[in-house]
Amino acid sequence: MSSEEIKSKAARVVMNTYGRYDLALAGGRGALVYDPEGREYLDFVAGLAVASLGHAHEGVAVAVARQARTLVHVSNLYFTEPMVRVAERLVDNSFADRVFFCNSGGEANEAAIKLARKYSHDRYGAGRYRILSMEHSFHGRTMATLSATAQTKIHKGFEPLVDGFGYLPWGDPEALDRAMTEDVCAVMIEPIQGEGGVNEPPAGFLERAAESCRSRDILLIFDEVQVGLGRTGELFAYENFGVEPDIMTLAKALANGLPMGACLARETVAEHFGPGTHATTFGGTPLVSAAALVVLDVMLAPGFLDQVRRVGAYFKTLLQKLAGRHDFIRQVRGRGLILALQLDFPGGGAVKALMDRGFLVNCTQDTVLRFLPPLIITEAEVDRLMPVLEEVLVAEAEALED
Prior knowledge:
The protein is an alpha/beta fold. The chain folds into 2 domains: 3-56 and 303-401, Aspartate Aminotransferase, domain 1 (Alpha-Beta Complex); 59-300, Aspartate Aminotransferase, domain 2 (3-Layer(aba) Sandwich), CATH 3.40.640.10. Helices cover 40% and strands 16% of the residues. The chain is built from 14 helices and 15 strands. Helix 3 (58-68) runs antiparallel to helix 11 (286-300), helix 4 (81-92) packs parallel to helix 11 (286-300) and helix 12 packs parallel to helix 14 (379-401). The model has no long low-confidence stretch (mean pLDDT 98).
């Protein structure tokens, strides 16, 4: 189908839950994607931090094809080797002792919420169930995870929310201490907020949060759905801050585009999930696990994360130089290859103009241009973006002045 046919048919049969850009995509390779007519775009979105190894990664394609000819799915009533190998790889390279597999970040966060409540229920009884999260957070679209998300726009139209969540100012350890009442079972934090605007924590905040939780036997949950798995230049974002959680959630990049999420936990926490307490039909199927094994092999290979840090630092330096030339850029945010420009005008026009010039970027929180390229992006590809980005932003700023 042509681009116009795809968009026309989608308007008729697909629920309108996304404010889609005026673009249909048909394929890709590495950091490039292309539309049905063959026009190429350099991708600084990567499916919102999903295609971290790039599009049509040969190793993932081969592994998935091989597994599809062997065993795609059986119930989790049975053991399968690929799932066990992925769990082992995650445990061996993280704080965690056990893993629960599911299909998405929202599901992973649902599992974390249930596990935290079960832990406190078993140890302290039914009155200890509240979970604290941060303003500007984003934890999912299910009823529990949108209730955990401290953004009114996400809640609108879905009230009443699930009971048992409280919201705190981002990065305020004193407010967190005051909120830790006897009914709190967990604190849920993105080590770097993604959808909320690529907000890094103030120095010492995560350390203080961990200490406050530990002293009260309140569980610390890190939502690394967007920022985990190499995105910050470390395998897991918490490694940047020297703080380990009790529970961590992953998804997005875990299988490079196949639907896979994971909830990781320490043994003393994980043991509170037993048969019948939580489950999912498709979690950790042999097919998605085959893809995840390739992802983890690549990310753990010598030099891969070094390259992410190197290109990320190069990209951020160029963004900082750009900000130094233009007052309409208020701030450069992020680390590794989750980076952002805080503008003093809405970024939607820049996103469209860049798309028209062959570059895909994302805007969040209305004024934050977010860059989430595949982790295999090169300095040369970053160089292609920068002059066009500057031209587009200058034109947008001048148009708004007029």
